Design the sequence.
């Protein structure tokens, strides 16, 4: 039951829609104040009355009923306490009957959301800097699907540009097919780094690189064959990482896919008198919007990121007719996306308003920022391997007789890596530290996975659960159920704010409430009715925590 909606529907406030009123209702920081509260300060300007009077008038008109046991006006707030018996009954019934669908909805039915994320560069290693876009984007895909949307996950591959000319030059000078096929991405990284070292004293290498990239663009068989080999090796290698992280895509249409679609964009920009020359380059002037010009074509006629992103946005709208199109890209690209979205708006695309840049913070090393061309990266494969190895050691120490230790260690270790990028607000910068990512103490992924395993242990120990009658609940029992009842709201909020960490923080809150209940309340008690009630709570926690972790791409384990 949506208590916010129920309260909003019952309140009568002139000039405010029920949906807007629902959005004003919040959960007080202290449950002694109530389960829900309406701050009447937000209504004061509209109703031209003091918040205190508004709260008092609404309180007098509302009245108690079978769902709301108490309502009180306090200092401009209208506080509501729900009837605990009906609330507990509603929540437990809903969780236990819905199972792995609990928290889901059909609000997105008939709507498509495109999510552009991960977008790795061909022939470059999958490093820790790619982690945030990959797991944030993947979590958003899962969250929107859970809410009934059709989701198109897009890996907009970086497979276009002079760097491929550089790789071909480096390959011909310092490598060969056998070395690349055995060394794979490490070999490609080695020669890419060597190119930039050599180019410092041999600038003619840059000219050769531009020549080879032009050959790729012109369809030269030899250059294209090398490019396709680099691409195939990259995708095979990163697919292993994606599998570990529980990440999938619906489209791998990268930058090169739009090579033959940019001409139409440039023609349309010309027809609408949006292009102008600036030092030989073609730009869209954005002075009126306090932005530098958006560069569309270089002076030599070659395209840029903006050109390809404009073509991609138009293609996605024509192909998928999206409701929203999200770009999960670091905040360093804020200006780029503002320019691209504004150009599309000036082109007369009414759907430009549905394009969203989901910005996230940067990842750096403790020694400074990362750079592939300088060889300063932490490979994501190495991070995952180290966390899995540490998880295995912890299991060996604490539970050496555990069955299937290898798979449990993999789930725990990989979960820790995913959790490290989803535990805080996405916009925060991260200084990568093995000590932090490998921590199994405090508010961590292993803590959440252990909470699920603890639920499972309790349920297995007590066998089949019988029927129960809901009587008076303890504070710890009620707090668990109160948190359970908010899961759907947390999922919806995560989608509205494009913020998976809302689900992460929710999972931590639920695990904390359950573990407090577990310690204070004897579940395997002599009172059969009470035992069945507490087993129902435990089962509901297991279902909800599992659902939350699944949305984050984190695997649960039966035992730890």
Sequence:
């Amino acid at each position: 039951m949506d208590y916010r909606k129920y309260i909003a529907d019952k309140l009568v406030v002139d000039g405010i829609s029920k949906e807007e009123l629902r959005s004003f209702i919040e959960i007080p920081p202290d449950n002694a104040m109530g389960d829900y509260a309406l701050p009447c300060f937000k209504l004061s300007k509209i109703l031209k009355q003091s918040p205190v009077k508004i709260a008092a008038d609404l309180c007098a008109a509302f009245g108690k009923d079978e769902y709301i046991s108490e309502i009180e006006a306090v200092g401009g707030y209208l506080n509501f306490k729900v009837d605990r018996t009906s609330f507990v009954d509603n929540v437990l019934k809903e969780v236990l009957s819905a199972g792995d669908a609990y928290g889901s909805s059909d609000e997105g039915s008939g709507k498509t959301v495109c999510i552009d994320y991960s977008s790795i560069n061909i022939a470059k290693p999958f490093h820790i800097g790619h982690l945030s876009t990959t797991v944030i984007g993947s979590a958003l895909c899962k969250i929107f699907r859970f809410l009934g949307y059709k989701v198109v996950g897009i890996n907009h591959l970086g497979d276009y540009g002079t760097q491929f000319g550089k790789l071909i030059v480096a390959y011909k000078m310092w490598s060969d097919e056998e070395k690349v096929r055995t060394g794979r991405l490490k070999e490609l990284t080695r020669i890419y780094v060597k190119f930039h070292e050599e180019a410092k004293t041999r600038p003619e290498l840059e000219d050769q690189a531009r020549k080879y990239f032009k050959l790729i663009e012109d369809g030269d068989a030899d250059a294209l064959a090398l490019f396709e080999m680099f691409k195939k090796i990259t995708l095979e290698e990163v697919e292993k990482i994606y599998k570990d992280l529980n990440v999938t895509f619906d489209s791998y249409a990268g930058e090169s896919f739009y090579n033959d679609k940019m001409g139409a964009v440039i023609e349309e920009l010309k027809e609408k008198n949006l292009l102008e020359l600036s030092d030989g380059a073609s730009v869209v002037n954005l002075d009126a919007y306090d932005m530098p010009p958006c560069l569309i074509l270089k002076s030599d006629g070659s395209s840029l990121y903006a050109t390809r992103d404009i073509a991609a946005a138009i293609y996605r709208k024509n192909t998928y007719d999206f409701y929203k199109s999200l770009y999960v890209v670091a905040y360093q690209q804020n200006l780029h996306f503002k320019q691209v979205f504004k150009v599309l708006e000036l082109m007369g695309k009414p759907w430009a308003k549905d394009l969203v840049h989901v910005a996230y913070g940067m990842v750096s090393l403790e020694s400074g920022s990362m750079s592939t061309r300088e060889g300063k990266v932490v490979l994501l494969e190495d991070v995952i391997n180290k966390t899995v190895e540490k998880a295995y050691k912890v299991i060996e120490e604490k539970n050496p007789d555990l069955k299937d230790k290898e798979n449990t260690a993999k789930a725990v270790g990989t979960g820790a890596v995913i959790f490290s990028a989803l535990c805080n607000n996405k916009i925060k910068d991260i200084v990568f530290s093995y000590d932090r990512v490998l921590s199994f103490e405090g508010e961590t992924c292993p803590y959440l996975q252990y909470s699920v395993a603890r639920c499972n242990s309790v349920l297995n120990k007590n066998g089949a659960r019988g029927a129960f009658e809901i009587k008076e609940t303890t504070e710890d029992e009620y707090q668990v159920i109160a948190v359970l009842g908010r899961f759907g709201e947390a999922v919806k909020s995560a989608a509205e704010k494009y913020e998976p960490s809302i689900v992460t923080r929710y999972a931590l809150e639920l695990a904390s409430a359950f573990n407090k209940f577990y310690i204070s309340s004897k579940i395997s008690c002599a009172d059969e009715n009470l035992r069945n009630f507490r087993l129902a709570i435990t089962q509901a926690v297991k279902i909800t925590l599992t659902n939350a972790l699944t949305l984050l791409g984190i695997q649960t384990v039966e035992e730890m």
Q: What stands out?
A: Residues 161-231 form one domain. Residues 528-552 form the longest helix (25 residues).
